[in-house]
Specification:
Structural class: alpha+beta
Largest sheet: 8 strands, mixed
Pfam families: GerE
Organism: Faecalibacterium faecis
Order of helices and strands: HHHHEEEEHEEHEEEEHEEEEEEEHHHHHH
Keywords: Coiled coil, DNA-binding, Membrane, Transcription, Transcription regulation, Transmembrane, Transmembrane helix
Number of helices: 13
Strand content: 15-25%
InterPro entries: Sig_transdc_resp-reg_C-effctor (IPR016032), Tscrpt_reg_LuxR_C (IPR000792), WH-like_DNA-bd_sf (IPR036388)
Shape: rod-shaped
Protein name: Helix-turn-helix transcriptional regulator
Number of strands: 17
């Protein structure tokens, strides 16, 4: 069976076997890389809702930081404005040696005060990010006229356009003569004095307090400015004299159009709304200031939006005719006042983004599955099928060679048996005696070669078994033939057959052995 074992070894060491091994390793590597890429992509896209939540959280943080910085600026500028206006009132009262209560029915004094206040008021307005500034004195020029209990003197100046240092200013309330003298033209809805019954919570804001100015500012609810279609919120601070007397109120106006224009947010969302609303269980969109995106989108939600958690940090904001998904949290803008901030996208956009993310995951999964199937089919067609065919051909060839070898050995055994029978019927020739006598004279290597021939092996097989060259084997063959007195391998095998059949005698422990 030496031939069969060697033939199998050749099959395992064939080029096709090596190609198959490397192809399998390459396929395994490719599949590992493919699944690694798949895991990476799925990890990136595994939760679209979480990605949307993270993006909205970032958007909310930006909006919240904008609001905090903005109201810090308003607070600083408002404190300076209150101090400036209070100082002007104190100086004028001291100059005229009169009390604040005596300002009622004193149009000349009130006009003089407005003359001194308008320049610092306009200067603070231009320095501050807002749409208007005002100072309201708790006094009137004529206490006897109808509605005098709600009429109050003061100045209210607005920016007439975009927030630039050179934008013209308009006088909404105050003396028209004073305004024109300082290049502040009257507003188309100009009035001489404020109407406190149209001023939100005037009596509450006029309540004296002892808190320092930097803790006393507040933000009113959004309301429609009297005589206009503009909706605004007022950033209020008290006007206090040196003796603690409440002179009135001052502050800045934040109009809806100003807020929309100056706080539009850069974003990756197609539609985004940012709201600043009073604190409450829901979100009072009707009382909120809102902005859109720098890309041009703007939509102001209306009515009261009901808040409900969606999980994952998201909040659903639902109104009578609209729904949004976003982030909503309470934010403290002053020592005594909290507001609700919200950034949100339409619910339709949220669902579209979730669906788009799921479709991306599905398409990536299908692509990966197709790629794996394609690689496997291509590997089977180019590598496995040829290898299987080659293996089948090698197996059939090996079986055919084994059958041929078995047939040859059977024929050789038959021929040797026939020769042995012939020799038994004849006298043993002298050559056979010489052959038997020469066996003990063989060297160790020559005896191994002799045993191989006696076992029926061919010269090539013996050379491979002993790991010697063909020339070396021929040299040993010549010595063996000379010592045994034979002239050919065929004659040697004939004498071996006679010897094995028991026709001749052999020296002790020197006879040939049958192949195992």
């Amino acid at each position: 069976m030496h031939f069969v074992d060697r033939h199998r070894e050749k099959i395992h060491q064939s080029p096709m076997s090596s190609r198959l091994l490397w192809a399998c390793l390459l396929l395994v590597l490719l599949l590992v890389l493919t699944f690694g890429a798949a895991l990476f992509l799925f990890a990136s896209l595994h939760n679209t809702k979480k990605d949307i939540s993270c993006s909205l959280q970032i958007q909310f943080s930006v909006f919240q930081n904008d609001m905090e910085r903005y109201f810090e600026q308003l607070a600083v500028m408002g404190v300076n404005l209150s101090e400036d206006m209070s100082a002007e009132v104190d100086k004028e009262l001291a100059l005229r040696q009169m009390s604040f209560a005596q300002l009622n029915d004193s149009p000349e004094v009130l006009n003089a005060l407005e003359e001194k206040m308008i320049e610092p008021l306009c200067r603070r307005l231009r320095q501050t990010g807002c749409s208007g500034a005002f100072v309201l004195l708790d006094a009137t020029v004529n206490t006897r006229m109808e509605g005098a209990e709600h009429s109050r003197a003061g100045l209210y100046v607005q920016k007439s356009g975009a927030d630039t240092p050179t934008v013209p200013l308009l006088l909404y309330r105050g003396s028209a003569e004073v305004g024109k003298a300082h290049s502040v033209m009257p507003h188309r809805k100009w009035r001489m004095e404020f109407q406190t019954d149209q001023f939100p919570d005037y009596d509450r804001w006029m309540t004296p307090g002892s808190a320092p100015l930097y803790q006393s500012y507040t933000l009113t609810e959004r309301f429609e400015l009297p005589g206009t279609s503009e909706e605004v919120q007022l950033f209020l601070l008290p006007l206090r004299g040196r003796d603690g007397t409440m002179y009135g109120l001052c502050g800045f106006e934040i109009s809806e159009s100003y807020f929309k224009q100056n706080f539009a947010q850069p974003t990756g969302f197609d539609r985004l709304s940012c709201l600043l609303a009073p604190a409450g269980d829901g979100l009072a969109a009707d009382a909120a200031l809102s902005s859109g995106t720098t890309g041009g989108y703007y939509h102001a939600p209306r009515n009261t939006l009901v808040l409900r958690s969606m999980g994952g940090g998201l909040t659903q904001l639902t109104g009578p005719d609209s729904a949004y998904a976003g982030i909503s949290q309470l934010c403290r803008l002053s020592e005594s006042q909290s507001y609700r901030l919200a950034v949100c996208i339409p619910m339709a956009d949220y669902r579209r983004l979730v669906l788009s993310g799921n479709l991306q995951m599905l398409l990536i999964g299908l692509f990966i599955a197709f790629f794996v199937v394609f690689c496997c089919m291509n590997f089977h067609r180019r590598i496995l099928s040829p290898a299987f065919r080659q293996f089948e051909e090698d197996r059939r060839e090996s079986r055919r060679r084994m059958d041929e070898l078995q047939l040859e050995r059977q024929q050789m055994q038959t021929e040797l048996s026939r020769l042995a029978d012939v020799c038994r019927n004849e006298s043993v020739p002298d050559a056979f005696q010489t052959f038997v006598a020469g066996i003990p004279t063989l060297t160790k290597t020559e005896r191994r070669i002799f045993d191989g021939y006696a076992a029926g092996l061919r010269t090539r097989e013996i050379a491979q078994q002993l790991d010697i060259k063909d020339s070396t084997l021929r040299f040993h063959n010549k010595n063996i033939y000379d010592k045994l007195g034979v002239s050919s391998l065929k004659q040697l095998q004939q004498f071996v057959a006679i010897l094995n059949s028991g026709s001749g005698s052999t020296p002790d422990e020197s006879g040939p052995k049958k192949a195992r």
